[in-house]
Amino acid sequence: MPLLCLASPKGGVGKTSLASGLAHALHRTGRPVFAIDCDPQNALRLHLGLPITDPEGYLARLHLRPDWRACLRRTPAGPDLLPYGETDMRGALATSGLIEREPELLAGPVRAMLADPSAIVVVDTPPGASAALQILAPQAALVLAVLLADAASTALLPEIETGRFLGRGTLGTLVGPKLRVVLNQVDRHSRLSVSAAEGVAAHLGARLAGAISREEAVAEALACQRPVGAHAPYSTAARDIEDLAATVLREMPVAAPAPVAPAVTSSLFPWSRP
């Protein structure tokens, strides 16, 4: 099943930036790509170019049983997005509880999106253990755990390898074979960052799916509400994400996309391709 979940044992690791970059890079291969924001921060929409003033979404309104298709947004970056929606802490907790009680409210839309065997669904999950991750991870083709390339990453490796960051129970055992790690924000000018990245890479071996360079272009891309691959396609970070997307496609059973007619290059994203 071509379902890709992005997770992290803690926040602040650039998981949402990576989710948007991967969704954009996978979309550029010609495949239908759906992105789902399961993080109450509701930030994935900003990375993909939706207006900051648009508060609508799916999970934030889950108690109203909305039609997920009516909540789907076509983004300027290309992928279709199911935003989380605007909420507060109380609303986020209520949504999490509702998903636990009625998992089909989340699993159903994902299953419908995957009815097209060439489609890829990219899910940005909240940091740490979450109801969304527990529901979707067992069905995912890959789970990418995002870590920073710093000294703290070494301390988090046991959480990753044992699956403890996924929560209690058997989820870690179920997900283990399809769990991969991505090192984010590798600072090539920092000896400590490079050493930490090299140490983690040596320890993980084939379980390391990729490493993404730390660059100002990534922050600039968010400020412009674009994935870095659209904002700065020739940057090292953009190329790193393209390499990661290629790895994802090799490891996930994705059908070849149907032929499409050439699209006119967008003036908003002059470097984008269908």
UniProtKB/TrEMBL annotation:
Domain of life the protein comes from: Bacteria
InterPro entries cross-referenced by the UniProt entry: Cellulose_synthase_operon_BcsQ, DNA_Partitioning_ATPase, P-loop_NTPase
Family matches, as CDD domains: ParAB_family
PANTHER family in the record: P-LOOP CONTAINING NUCLEOSIDE TRIPHOSPHATE HYDROLASE (PTHR13696), PARA FAMILY PROTEIN CT_582 (PTHR13696:SF52)
Protein name (record): Cellulose synthase operon protein YhjQ
Organism, scientific name: Roseomonas nitratireducens
Encoding gene per record: yhjQ
